[in-house]
Amino acid sequence: MKRLMVKLGLVVLAAGTLGGVAAPSVASASTKKTPTFTNTDLKRYYKNAKSKTAFYFKTYKSNGKTGTLLIFGDFNGNNANVKYGVPTSIKLNKTGKTLTTKYKLIEFKTTENKTTTSLTKKAYTFKLTKKSSTTFSTKVTGSKLNRRLATSGKSVTYSKVKKSPASVYAKKYVKPALQKKYTKIFNSSTELTAAQKKQYATQYTNNAVKTMINNFNYKS
Question: Does the keyword Signal apply (predicted)?
Answer without folding.
Answer: yes
